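Hello forum,

I keep getting stuck at the same step: I have a sequence, I want structure tokens, and every attempt I make locally crashes halfway through. Rather than fight my setup again tonight, could one of you with a working pipeline run this one for me? It's a single chain of 348 residues.
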Amino acid sequence: MNRTLRATSYVAIALMLVFVVMAFLVNLTPLGENTWLRVFFSVSALNFTLRASVPLILGALCGILCERTGIINIGIEGMMLAGAFAAFVAKTSTNHWPLMSSLLFGVAIALAVGGLMGLLHATFSIRYRMDQIISGTVLIILAGGVSAYLFDRNAVAQGKFGAIAIPGLSQIPVLGEVLFTNPPLTYTALILVVVIHIALFYTRWGLRSRACGEHPRAADTVGVNVNRFRYMNTVLGGMLAGLAGGFLVLEAVGQFQEGMTAGRGFISLAAMIFGNWMPFGAMGAAVLFGYTQALQNELLLAGVTTVPRQFVSMIPYVVTIIAVSGFVGRVRPPAAEGKVYETEGGSE
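Reply #2:
Ran it on my machine without issues. Output:
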């Protein structure tokens, strides 16, 4: 399995290098005059790829934190939607505040509501020993129903986060415009990938978290409170999913729409699996799925009429299904994933 994953990593790196070279050629040479090359490699396609990837990255990180400690979380979609709605309510309630204060308040509320959804999922799964798939499904239904019922269609959120150019780096051709001229939540998502990777694999907290997902009895034997770690990581994961929803309202779209997550939570789960429950692997998968969304957008903007619009819109979901179905069996989830853990005394 390790050899297969290593080979897959090499192939992914090679493809990324080829893609970067093509992006430079298309945007800096006469190759950019070719319509199809612009569809695949233009700066606008790359920018859209990054924007589409951010909520998927955050959702995948949510899944990693939960499942690395043994809690299956298919409720990422509901956590995202709850975070998006909470951010919208917070923003519209504070439109009279200074813009940055209002936006930061919206981020804080999205994090808090996402964390509460995570706590609810952990409570159902750990304290009440509910089937974790059912618990996650409940969260999705709850978020969809409550947000649709309470949504005020006359409310308007005024303003959203703007791009911040990093001095020097933003002047790099092509890459500067794509990677170093972005709003703050985009930078935050990319930084969180590095932070969570280091935390999971190079800290005591990460070692104990992974032990809770792989061999909780052994972790308990050395004094680790397994269920406490599962509560903590599920809440942290919920906060990241809430931030993903907040991104949609406060940075990407600027407004709330019913069901605006549009399956991103499930695609995040696919990115997590495709990335083998690793932060950088999940980010790579999220970028791949984000690129398919960008490709869909670019094809529609290019006026491709030979293929029905509905088929073009299916591209991200079809690629997700193909990628995951072709990769299942080559990756291994945490051994104790989805298994309720009870101490020797039978209590939490």
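The longest helix spans residues 99-127. If your local run keeps crashing, start a new thread with the error log.
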